[in-house]
Amino acid sequence: MIKNTEKIKIKLQKRYAKERRFKLYGISAIVISIAFLLSLLVNISVTGLPAFQQTYVKIDINIDSELLNLNHQYSEQELFRADYSQVIKQSLKDFFPGVEGRKQKRALRQLVSKSAAYQLRDLVIAKPHVINTRQSLWVLARDDVDVFMKGGIDRSLPESDRRLKDFQLVWVDKLLAENRLEKRFNIGFFTEGDSREPEQAGIKGAMVGSLLTMLVTMLLSFPIGVSAAIYLEEFAPKNNKWVDLIEININNLAAVPSIVFGLLGLAVFIGLFGVPRSVPLIGGLVLTLMTLPTIIITSRAALKAVPPSIREAALGLGASRVQTTFHHVVPAAMPGILTGTIIGMAQALGETAPLLMIGMVAFVADVPQGITDPSTVLPVQIYLWSDSPERAFTERTSAAIMVLLGFLIVMNFLAVIMRKKFEKKW
Amino acid sequence: MINIEKREEFDIEINGTVGKPFVDSAKFSARNVDVFYGDEQAIFDANIDIGKNQIIAMIGPSGCGKSTFLRCLNRMNDTIQGCHMRGEITLDGEDIYHKQQDPVLLRARVGMVFQKPNPFPKSIYDNVAYGAKLHGLAASKIELDELVEKSLIRAGLFKEVKDSLHKPGTGLSGGQQQRLCIARTIAIDPEVILMDEPTSALDPIATAVIEELMIDLSKKYTIAIVTHSMQQAARVSQRTAYFHMGQLVEVNDTNTVFTNPEHQLTENYITGRFG
Question: Does residue A306 belong to any structural domain of this protein?
């Protein structure tokens, strides 16, 4: 007869082997996910980091009052309206003498960004005494030059396959030889709105739009979601048909594709209530619809996790149900509620599909000043740029993704801090 | 070996409550009380008085309905979904289940201490001050300070915590936490204190401290205690009620119950033949 210990020993080997196998599965799963995550991050960083630098070109401008078409009053209005692009065109012609033909002349103009004219205008308005002097000015280079400077254009390719033709490369080489081309930190990326010209396109409009949209979402979804959760968890009758129905529907809403919320917002908020389209207000409203189920479900879970003994203690002292809930249960559940809210908000921050339905996909160059100004948001900006044909938008797309990821990391970090702050030991 | 004798209890009949369920100076009077959880009846026709400034112990095997009955006395059962009662319970002659009776007001008069110490996750001071603040019992900060100190002294906890009043109440030991809960209850100066197995989670030393405290408090308050420990019932109470499967079997002076029980079931229980 075999003893019990013998029987157990035989099985023991198998049991340990099973344990080791399971550990191995777990570790390999983690390694694979980390590898994917890393390759994603590396890919985005490598593509996106160059966008934080921008090529500037130094041009010598003869600020000729005649070319500017000015009389001698120099009133601000007159200075504002003057034709600065003409001056810049002339200075480029002076620098590269002997440019012939319409095609080459046009290409010459396109060495520098259109923003150079505005830059010159601002300079002249600020310091009118520079008129009729010669000034050296660092202005933004055109996106093709910028791409070339960052190694995005291969000289060895046949001319027809290149954005910069041979004669343009000669110009760039001349500028390089005279140290007139320089890469600098791209402040404009953070201080400008969107633009059709890649070198002028910035992310500020989308950042402010996202911030305003999140503000609206936060202000609406947190109070509504948390009060709904508190009511359902603490006050609603249990085992009631209607409450069950509501509960099932909230769970279902959490699984509804987000684009449907966009359609709902379009039909109800824009169609029925006449909220202007393409503004942070409507974006916030739609994202509130989308975030509410998440907030309600996580808040209810947090409230459910509060030990019932705390409720009994308060009720036993003669606290009313509202007092019990707000003095004890809600504070105890606060870390969980906040975590859920921030998860919901992070989800909303990265959402694109419902916003396409309500017109937030429009091209908006201005930075929004309030929740009723047309604007775009970060994920939509990424979508728009990724859709643009210009090569220089590729790096900006990745850079915008980096900014969005940065936002998400900050939000998650906040969630951790708040949870730590509100957490109490039992 | 399984004791077959234990099965006997099912054959013994219960015909109403024996002993002396009624007293002259009753604080609480329960008449024909039935309690249901949904469709299931938990208490059958209980009739009992709880005397003023007395400690009454409720004993009986698990699931016999003693806790349920206790929780009827401050309407804590109202908070349980599907629980309802029939019959009449009066406090100083007033029906506590009357439509006009506010359960919040009732619970301010009838305090409760629970099985598991359940201080709020707040400071010791805030734990004791909470009820008083809730009901507006202290007019000023100084008054509140005094009330907190007085309550802690009466709960026999003040000496131990006087230097750490603003530390979390949850950081105390189990016995201290339970005394904190008692201090919290007496801070609102109730007329009755209900205790639901207040020492079952505590060690013998902490239990002894709480028992002394109970005897001391009974000079001023009426106390009803549910306990699994017959020794505890014998040590602290003046009267004892024995519950069995939802029925109130016997109520009498504690001495009589433990030395000369009238009912066979009571005798079986106190002699340890089941339960």
Answer: yes
pLDDT at A406 over 90: yes
- Residue A270 DSSP SS3: helix
Distance CA A43, CA B11 (A): 80
How is residue A174 written in tokens?
């001349």
Q: Which residue has the higher pLDDT, A348 or A2?
A: A348
Q: What is the pLDDT of residue A159?
A: 85
Half-sphere exposure of residue A426: CA atoms within 13 angstroms, side-chain side = 14
pLDDT over 90 at A204, yes or no? yes
Residues A219 and A269 in one domain: yes
- Sequence length of chain A is 426
Does A316 sit within 8 Å of B185, measured CB to CB? yes
**Number of inter-chain CB pairs under 8 A, A vs B:** 68
Number of structural domains chain A divides into: 3
Mean pLDDT, all residues of chain B: 87
Residue B4 confidence (pLDDT) above 50: no
B10 pLDDT exceeds 80? no
Chain B residues within 8 A of A237 when measuring between CB atoms: 81
Q: Select from B75, B76, B116, B118 the residue whose CB has the most chain A CBs within 10 Å, as the one to mutate to test that interface.
A: B118
Portion of chain B with pLDDT greater than 90, in percent = 37
Q: What angle do CA A252, A257, A263 make, to 5 degrees?
A: 110
Please indicate if any CB of chain A lies within 8 Å of the CB of B210. Answer: no
Could B81 and A312 be called an inter-chain contact, meaning their C-beta atoms sit closer than 8 Å? Answer: no
Rounded to a whole number, what is the distance in Å from the CA of B215 to chain A's nearest CA? 22
Comparing CA positions, the residue from A370, A220, A204, A373 lying closest to residue A286 is: A220
- A150 and A237 assigned to the same domain: no
Residues A25 and A86 in one domain: no
Which site among B112, B127, B128, B191 would you substitute to test the A interface, given the most A Cβ atoms closer than 10 Å to its Cβ? B112
Contact B79 A314 (CB under 8 A): no
Q: Output the domain CATH number for residue B250.
A: 3.40.50.300
Distance of CA A410 to the CA centre of its chain: 13
Most confident of A33-37, A313-317, B22-26, B81-85: A33-37
Q: Is B118 in CB contact (< 8 Å) with chain A?
A: yes
Confidence of residue A425 (pLDDT cuts 50, 70, 90): low
The overall pTM is greater than 0.90:
no
Select from A237, A317, A425 the Cβ nearest to the Cβ of B131: A317
Contact B121 A424 (CB under 8 A): yes
Distance CA B100, CA B118 (A): 30
Residues of chain A with C-beta less than 8 angstroms from the C-beta of B197: none
In this prediction the ipTM stands at 0.86
